[in-house]
Amino acid sequence: MDVALRLALAAHVPRAKLGDASEPAVGIPVALALSGGLDSMVLLDALAHWVQTRRDAGECFVPPLAIHVHHGLSEQADDWLAVCEREARLRGFAFAAVRVNVPRNARQGIEGAARAARYEALAATCKTHGVKWLLTAHHANDQAETVLLQMLRGAGLPGVAAMAVEGTLPTTAGNVGEPCQTRLLRPLLDVTRETMRAYAKARSLSWVDDPSNDDRHYLRNALRHDVMPAIAAHVPAYRETLARFARHAAQAQSLLDQLAQTDFEMARSASMSGGERLQRSRLQALDSPRLANLLRYWTARRGLSMPPEARLDEWVRQIRDAQADASLELPHGDAVLRLYRDELQWTAVYGAADSSHLADPSDPDDVVPEVELRWSGQREWPLPQWQGSVMFAPVADGESIEGTIDEQVLRAHPLVAKSRVGGERWRENAAGHSRSLKHWYQSRGVAAWLRHVPIVWQAGEIVFVPRLGIDGAAQRDATTGVRWRMMWRDEA
């Protein structure tokens, strides 16, 4: 146990190599996930022993952090938390407990929902405490069970590749905001459950038993209690065999990812519109399996769940069959894969089912209520009804004033945000001709789903149109000399 932990830390955690006296490991930011069960208690004890060994060698450490996630799914959950805190503090660890709410009607089942909530809580706690490495107590039996479980679920190579010693935290944080900076380390993947139990007895460790681990309603438990013992009776080395298969699957997936990266760069659009966009006309040169491989890669790259095979096949068919001027909307979870003007891109799910929809003023249920702002220097005007905000920024000395508005004009009358109803006209500058918003959106390549935005009026005249700018008539000069830019921030 101690050897496995030492080797994993030495190989993966920077400045943690034993015997490296030239650069002592001071304050390694590590934590472990502590459920209170046998596996995590063994890891807690082994890590405490490793830390003490390093301290005895004259190195200085900040205490590792033990993180316990309280799911609230068992009547004994409070008792488990107390055991975890007691055992962690007895060994000189810092301790953090996080309570999460697990939806019992989640689409992925209560087990999947609990796992997702647990990793989100672990990631958030690691970020709060500046933890760079999170250790978990996954072992050889877990690895074998995971490989077989994923095979039965038809998870494909990414699934049967199972768990690596080092990896990323499986969270949704990569979708929005900064990606999680904490790395996941599973130092005991080569250690069997039987070895861990023998270690726990030899060290007289205390742990808690979760009755749900015996519930064969969950497939993993059924495999653990019914299937694995039967396999072991005929193939004693099944753990090593499945682990080897998982390594081969990981190698194959790595090669597929490299191929997908090559295809991704080949198809990447040179558009200046921002974001990751692929040119459909280039993708059509790929055969169906290769295009499917690229789409799986791109989906994972965006931090989205892997699409079912039938959905992926439908994406491939529609993309390959699309005409040059076709538009597509392919919903997937909290995102949409869209084709517009020969470019594929991932976007958020916008509020309107038909984003080119114009409100019907005669139908009260079809119009978003007006919102009024008496502007007095605000930098932000939140408009959640349209999934965005109007931003105001002062023009600095020496900057161009083209497309800006005078402060005196902004203060003269209230600003009113209204839904589009059709027929609105906008001009680029004071001397230009006014044209329909549809004309401007089309000429500037503003996709249909991005047109579900408010129009900002003032005293019966259009002042600002998101994605186009300040109306030319509102750009007229005034006497104050202080001018402002208005911009739309998309928050979908």
UniProtKB/TrEMBL annotation:
Residue ranges of domain Lysidine-tRNA(Ile) synthetase C-terminal in the record: 415-488
Q: Note the CDD domains from the entry.
A: TilS_N
Tell me, what is one Gene Ontology molecular-function annotation carried by this entry? tRNA(Ile)-lysidine synthase activity
Origin, by domain of life? Bacteria
**What is the documented function of this protein?**
Ligates lysine onto the cytidine present at position 34 of the AUA codon-specific tRNA(Ile) that contains the anticodon CAU, in an ATP-dependent manner. Cytidine is converted to lysidine, thus changing the amino acid specificity of the tRNA from methionine to isoleucine.
Domain commentary:
The N-terminal region contains the highly conserved SGGXDS motif, predicted to be a P-loop motif involved in ATP binding.
* Localization per record: Cytoplasm
Taxonomic source organism? Pandoraea fibrosis
List keywords of the entry alphabetically: ATP-binding, Cytoplasm, Ligase, Nucleotide-binding, tRNA processing
Q: What is the lineage of its organism?
A: Bacteria, Pseudomonadati, Pseudomonadota, Betaproteobacteria, Burkholderiales
- Name-wise, this protein is tRNA(Ile)-lysidine synthase
One of the Pfam families matching this protein, by short name: TilS
Instruction: Give the protein family.
Output: Belongs to the tRNA(Ile)-lysidine synthase family.
List of residues binding ATP = 35-40
Listed under catalytic activity are: cytidine(34) in tRNA(Ile2) + L-lysine + ATP = lysidine(34) in tRNA(Ile2) + AMP + diphosphate + H(+)
Q: So what EC number does this one have?
A: 6.3.4.19
Identify the InterPro entries for this entry: Lysidine-tRNA-synth_C (IPR012796), Rossmann-like_a/b/a_fold (IPR014729), TilS/TtcA_N (IPR011063), tRNA_Ile_lys_synt (IPR012094), tRNA_Ile_lys_synt_N (IPR012795), tRNA_Ile_lys_synt_subst-bd (IPR015262)
